[in-house]
Amino acid sequence: MISAVLPTYNRAPLAFTHGAGSWLTAEDGTRYLDLGAGIAVNALGHAHPALVETISAQAAKLWHVSNVYRIPEQERLAEMLVEKTFADTVFFTNSGTEAAELAIKMTRKYWTEKGDPRVEIITFAGSFHGRSTGAIAAAGSEKMVKGFGPLMPGFTHLDWADHDGLRAAITRKTAAVMIEPVQGEGGIRPVPDQCLKGLRDLCDSVGALLIFDEVQCGMGRTGRLFAHEWSGITPDIMMVAKGIGGGFPLGCVLATENAASGMTAGTHGSTYGGNPLGCAVGAKVTEIVSDDAFLAEVNRKGALFRQGLESLVASHPKVFEAVRGMGLILGLKMRLPNTDFVKAGYAAHVLTIAAADNVIRLLPALNIDDADIAEALRRLDTAASQIAA
Ligand SMILES: *Cc1c(COP(=O)(O)O)cnc(C)c1O
Predict the structure, then answer these.
(1) What average pLDDT score do residues 297-317 get?
(2) 303 near 274, Cβ under 8 Å?
(3) What is the DSSP letter of 221?
């Protein structure tokens, strides 16, 4: 008989009752060191006191009002994001997928309004933009689209890092290029800064919009508020979610005034998106994560963790091939199956996340402390010894 929960996930037989910082406690009382953070969602770990205080205070005042009214908490978060980024305007969603949908709609509307109805959006193999019909068509991988056709048309899929292919594919018919500055699901693959710069130039040469999906790599994860800041260039549209809510479902699309120019009253909406509860939490997360001293710590901790991971790889050459990533969006390219390593991690009471390309993702809370990084390395070492045996 089918389980009461639709069986679309292969779940580990683990359930947690509570969490604090980088630790989760299972039903049997065992504590696990959490290096997945809900897949880059719990940016400040579990039950962060400032977030608990913020959500409790807002919950006692006002949870939800419709977007047919002004929502001051939403305006405040939008203004913070506009001040800290390239963007002139923000739309709030409840997830990354919804952000992808709007990025696609915004692009189409932009070109329609220009009287140049370009529809083609270029995307890359290994990318992930969510699970809606539009988002799976955008990513295009067999695994995600199989059985769900006919797919939404308008996407051209290129190989990742195929510079020549990209140069040939970008034309005056290209509406936009959509890319993750660091591929998450695809296996922690950062796009080199010079490639992001080249991409910006290519888009500018044909007037195409540049869309960054920073749902996983944004909100401080790379050691800058947004990953693309390292490259010095900016997109026209950016999708954000995961970390911005710290565990509350919240996402958004940031855009320049020009890119957003087609999105006038009545062209898009969301019942829950931008509600007072979500935006109060989002503003607190953004305030903490965008602080320069906090980001400097992410960089320091990322370097510390990485150094330890390099030694781990060196001491288990049959298990691991290399370390990937930057800041606290790190990966271990495996020689043995990544899913075996995730299981060995459960036995060693450390939680990691598998990604494509036989990679293990390490996406700890951005405020993980040095002692927990040291403990993480010990437990990863235990898991590695176990699968090597
Ligand atoms: C997780 C993710 C999404 C989808 O976000 P959801 O909140 O699961 O809908 C989109 N893009 C990237 C890069 C992601 O990592």
Answers:
(1) 98
(2) no
(3) T
**Pocket of ligand 1 contains residue 216 by CB under 6 Å:** yes
Every domain of the chain with CATH number 3.40.640.10 lies at 69-289
In the chain, ranges of CATH 3.90.1150.10 domains: 293-363+379-389
State pLDDT tens for residues 354-387.
Answer: 999 999 999 999 999 999 999 999 999 999 999 9
Of the options 3.40.630.30, 3.40.640.10, 3.40.50.10330, 1.10.1060.10, the CATH number for the domain spanning 69-289: 3.40.640.10
Give the pLDDT of residue 136. Answer: 98
Report whether 346 contacts 12 (CB < 8 A).
yes
Q: Which CATH number fits domain 293-363+379-389: 2.60.120.620, 3.90.1150.10, 3.40.30.10, 3.40.50.10070?
A: 3.90.1150.10
Closest atom of ligand 1 to 95 CA is: 7
Pairing of strands 31-34, 89-93: unpaired
Is the minimum distance from the CB of 101 to ligand 1 under 6 angstroms?
no
Q: Which is it for the CA torsion 97, 103, 106, 112, positive or negative?
A: negative
Q: What is the pLDDT of residues 173-216, one digit of tens each?
A: 999 999 999 999 999 999 999 999 999 999 999 999 999 999 99
What H or E segment, with its residue span, contains residue 195? helix 193-206
Instruction: Determine the atom of ligand 1 nearest the C-alpha atom of 251.
Output: 7
List, for residues 240-264, the tens digit of each pLDDT value.
999 999 999 999 999 999 999 999 9
What values do phi and psi take at 210, rounded to 5?
A: -110, 120
* Most informative mutation of 9, 94, 95, 359 for ligand 1 (most atoms within 8 A of CB): 95
Distance 97 CA to ligand 1 centre (A): 6
State the greatest distance between any 2 C-alpha atoms of the chain, in Å, as a whole number.
Answer: 64
At 14 the pLDDT is 98
Distance 48 CA to ligand 1 centre (A): 23
When pLDDT is averaged across residues 9-20 and rounded to a whole number, the result is 97
Closest approach atom of ligand 1 to CA 39: 1
pTM of the entire structure?
0.98
- Residue 128 beta carbon below 6 angstroms from any ligand 1 atom: yes
Cα-to-centroid distance, 28 and ligand 1 (Å): 31
